[in-house]
From TrEMBL:
Residues 24-278 form the EAL domain. This is Bifunctional diguanylate cyclase/phosphodiesterase. It comes from Dyella kyungheensis. It comes from the Bacteria.
Amino acid sequence: AAKSLGRNNYQIFEGSAEQSQQQNLALKSGLRHAEHKGELRVFYQPQVDAVTEDIVGMEALVRWEHPELGFIGPGFFIPLAEETGLIVSIGEWVLRAACRHAQEWERRFGLGLRLGVNLSAVQLMQPNLLEMVSAALDESGLEANLLEMEITESISIKAAPNLVENLQGLHRLGVRIAIDDFGTGAASLDYLRKLPADRIKIDQSFVKNIGVDPDDEAIVRATIEMAHRLKRGVVAEGVETEQHMEFLRANHCDELQGFLFCRPLPQPVFEKLLLERQRLLAGISGTAA
Ligand code: C2E
Ligand code: MG
Ligand code: MG
Ligand code: MG
């Protein structure tokens, strides 16, 4: 059933380590104008319930539709945006667009889908982060508890001014917090202890090794169990095979995200998916009645 969520491919330019200095400079200046030229897009990837495989949320993932290069992936341009400080306005643009889309889907389909949005470390240190997030919620009308901000453990809690205060402030607004790429940073457990995190996202580098490396399997299992003992939810990222899914399900992971179910989709395509799902459900209840 999950595979009916679609397997569309969107070719994305990821850049490479050999990217020349010159190319980077050109891209940085292009990035400066990408937002007001309307070249940024938000794609959405479903998150599904591990047991029912039903959609329960989606992660917003930004792409840059470059006039010559086509779609450029965030793994490539987000670091450039962080270096130049552009991430602050790009991140705000993504959040506002994603909240608008999510509220529109909520109005049309009423599924209570949770919206995950990535926050860069640079944004987390902004003194006006709370005002920015509140404004995005207010202007879209999206309920705060449908928004989940995903943070990575790439920054040290001690070294980041405003980080803990900002996250506590978000929590007070009713926004949820997820620790992204869990297990890959240097301070996972410290994060878990000190930050108001509702959920853990198990990094795909561990999930990829399910069925391959027993040590990584042990880490996945232990992470799920630890999250549950701490009364946190767990999502696994990068679920690509039936074997990954079976293992995660057997070990009581709450939610799954990955190519096995669906790739990140452009907004109109994701919307079609929700519409189809609604038709399907209406069809089922139609025959039952
Ligand atoms: P992330 O937040 O950990 O997002 C998950 C990444 O894994 C996405 O890559 C997604 O397309 C990819 N993915 C999902 N399922 C699978 C799978 O089954 N197999 C594999 N191999 N990959 C899968 P994407 O979209 O290229 O994003 C990369 C990273 O860029 C994100 O990692 C996130 O850290 C960052 N990013 C994306 N959008 C934003 C944004 O709006 N703001 C910020 N600050 N960072 C963003
Ligand atoms: Mg994420
Ligand atoms: Mg991740
Ligand atoms: Mg990542």
